[in-house]
Each structure stands twice: as C-alpha cells, then as structure tokens.
Amino acid sequence: MYPDELTSPYLDRFSAAAAQRYEALRIERDDPDRPQKIAALNSEAFGAPVVLFCYLDRTMGPGQWGDAGMYLQTVMLLLRAEGLHSCPQVMWTMYRKTVSRTVGADDELVLFCGISVGFEKEGVPRLRTGRADMTETVTFIGL
Ligand SMILES: Cc1cc2nc3c(=O)[nH]c(=O)nc-3n(C[C@H](O)[C@H](O)[C@H](O)COP(=O)(O)O)c2cc1C
C-alpha cells in the first residue's frame, strides 16, 4: 500500500492522520487489538452499504495512476452533489485476490482502492483529519 521506506514528512503525516482517525473511532493507541480492530472497521467499509472498486490495467504507468486519482476525486465530488459521502480505502488491496474473485476482475487489472459510499450517519461527531500547512506543500513563484 505504501513504500517500504516511507520517510519524513510523509510518515509523520500518515501516523498523525491514522492516530486522529482511529482515536475518533475509539480505538486507543495502546489497545493490543488495535490492528485487528482497524482491519475490521475497514473491512466493514466503516458501515457504508456500498463499495466501489477501482482497477487499472496492469500496463499503466505513474501518469495514469495520477489520472485515476483525479478521476476518483471527481467521482467523490459527484457523490457529494447527490448528498452522499465516501471514503477511499487502499486497505482493500491487502485482500486483492478475494476482491478480484468477488467482482470478477481478471489478472490484467490491478486494484487501486475501494471507495465506501453511503449517507452520513446522523448524530456522529464530524472528524476531519489534519492537513499539512499549505507552506509545506505548495511553492508560490513570483510573488
Ligand atoms: C487513495 C486513498 C486511500 C486511502 N485508504 C484508506 C484506508 O485504507 N483506510 C482508511 O481508514 N483511510 C484511508 N484513506 C483516508 C481516508 O479515506 C480519508 O481520505 C481521510 O481520512 C481524510 O478524511 P477527511 O477528508 O474526512 O478528513 C485513504 C485516502 C486516500 C486518498
């Protein structure tokens, strides 16, 4: 799902986002069953009734993986326009063989991610994970 050697600042951001997300879902950092609980929540699509699976042809390169990310962002925005919410989950790639068998995807296709889709549950506190400061991620030239 991620490079073997995920370095700073990416690793720090990833860890911070995971900590925020799973603490909000009441899975404490020192819970010995944390990995299993996280896997279970993900596998249940966080309670969403629908999961979309996005595949790319195995021959595609980095540019086309970027295209797929842009495409999925549009899908997620269109879902919002219909009043739905969604959550991309790369975790499904850990179970890619089972997913491919279930959806009938052949070997020429690589699973990118799943996207859980559903209506927001009323009364659940909103969680928005932190974002890196724009000065860390964007360089403005000529200002
Ligand atoms: C491609 C992609 C894959 C992701 N995979 C997972 C995942 O497997 N499990 C998970 O809990 N969050 C995953 N996330 C993070 C969440 O889907 C979500 O983007 C993040 O929690 C921010 O949510 P927010 O905008 O509501 O704060 C992934 C995000 C992206 C863009």
UniProtKB/TrEMBL annotation:
Which Pfam families has this protein been placed in?
A: Nitroreductase
For this protein, the record's InterPro entries field holds: Nitroreductase, Nitroreductase-like
Q: Any idea where the Nitroreductase domain is?
A: 31-118
SUPFAM superfamilies for the chain:
FMN-dependent nitroreductase-like (SSF55469)
GO molecular function terms attached to this record: oxidoreductase activity
What is this protein's record name? Nitroreductase family protein
Q: What organism is recorded for this protein?
A: Actinacidiphila glaucinigra
Q: What is the lineage of its organism?
A: Bacteria, Bacillati, Actinomycetota, Actinomycetes, Kitasatosporales
